[in-house]
Design goal:
- By secondary structure, this protein is α/β, with parallel strands linked by helices.
- It is 23% helix and 21% strand.
- β8 and β9 form a beta hairpin.
- The C terminus is likely disordered.
Length: 254
């Protein structure tokens, strides 16, 4: 199924909006927004993309703000299905890529199980794009040959956290932490306890892809303190590649 085909009434399209700037959306994503009768939009979706919507389109905010307004995933699924069954062309617009910690598959399954036609238009994931916008490659020939993307939504000691921090600390890959602002101190502590070098370069990229993007850098052992006042959204990069971060604030603690 071609991603640029016309939206059909009574169907849902899950669109990844990329990292902040509407200009970083895909061509197919923009085409879907332009054709939508109703858009269900996250707070991380590119606000500029809504300017492409038809003036008569209905825009529904379904944000999930940390410690703020919250729309349960079940309610979002219900809205997608209800609008599609009403014969509308429905676009679910979120930031980054909806299949990278974005619950996109939950929405796809809900629509499929309800008999609602649904397809996916991938977006540029913030896990690679935001570091790049800060001058950080997640891999680099001769330095690091892989990267690991993890969710920092749960602290390392949470019973529902299945991540192996000992393995991550010893992996030799760049670590990219999404949704890790609140738990950054606990995450860095776990990595240090499991043997990662305290001097490993680290960077926190705040509001990547937005005009007020900010980059904070420090060694691993001090990055949580340096980024202590940061509010989401932010992406943390841990590894030798973080030394190339384009910083507006940098501290080196020896």
């Amino acid at each position: 199924m071609g991603s640029l085909e016309a939206l059909r009434p009574g169907s849902v399209v899950l669109v990844g909006g990329g990292p902040g700037d509407a200009g970083l959306m895909t061509v197919a994503g923009r085409a879907a927004v332009e054709q939508a009768d109703v858009l269900l939009v996250d707070h991380l979706a590119p606000a500029g993309a809504l300017e492409w919507a038809d003036p008569g389109a209905e825009i529904v905010c379904v944000s999930k703000l940390p410690r703020g307004p919250f729309t349960p995933q079940e309610r979002i699924n219900e809205l997608l299905i209800a609008h599609a069954r009403a014969g509308r062309r429905v676009v679910r617009l979120k930031g980054g890529d909806g299949f990278v910690f974005g619950r996109g598959m939950e929405e796809l399954l809900a629509c499929s199980e309800a008999g609602v036609p649904v397809r996916v238009i991938p977006g540029v994931s913030s896990s690679t794009a935001v570091p790049a916008l800060a001058g950080i490659p997640v891999t680099h020939r001769g330095l690091v040959r892989g990267f690991s993307v993890i969710s920092g939504h749960l602290p390392p000691d949470h019973p529902d956290n299945t991540l192996d921090y000992a393995a991550l600390a010893a992996s030799g890959t760049t670590l990219v932490v999404l949704m890790g602002v609140a738990n950054l101190a606990a995450i860095t502590k776990a990595l240090l306890v499991h043997g990662m070098d305290a001097g490993t370069p680290a960077a926190v990229v705040v509001r990547g892809g937005h005009p007020d993007q900010e980059v904070l850098t420090a060694p691993l052992h001090d990055i949580a303190r340096v980024a202590g006042s940061v509010r989401p959204p932010a992406v943390t990069v841990i590894g030798e590649v973080a030394r190339w971060a384009s910083s507006v604030h940098e501290e080196e603690i020896h």
